[in-house]
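INFO batch 0412 | record 1 of 1 | parsing
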Amino acid sequence: MLRFLILLCLLATCSCLIRSAPRYTADSSVTRELEKRRRASPSRLAHVVEGYLGIPYKWGGNTRAGMDCSAFVRIIFRKTYGIELPLTARQIYRVGRPVNRLQDLKPGDLVFFRLALSGPGISHVGIYLGKERFAHVGVSTGATITSLDNPYFRRRYVGARRVER
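INFO prediction complete | emitting tokens
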């Protein structure tokens, strides 16, 4: 009986320390922000990308001190659209649906490349911005914007995918 009373007192004391998680209803500011991001415009994408241009390349990095291409794409997608992507370029390549023709690309589509020194398969990812330009993080350039017409990337282009928002 004494154990029961002690347990009851502990539960009563702890229950005032436990708070329920916030509820995100259709009227909450979080829900409104996520909905706004889901429908983000190309200008929002360009604005977010601008804030990361010049960040140096660092293999496996995911901070402003240095990041690789997949970390760059992940953070741009998260800040622009509120969408979380997988960790690597190869994993990201499995997300969304293919965009078969270059002329069908839309801002926000993901573009993929097979770089020679990285072995077989997908090894580089960027985000299409429109006007045949994409944002990515290059080893020698850091975060930058490059033309899809660039001979280096044109030869290594594998395909594109569109992540539904």
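INFO post-check: The CA atoms of residues 49 and 62 lie 15 Å apart.
INFO record closed
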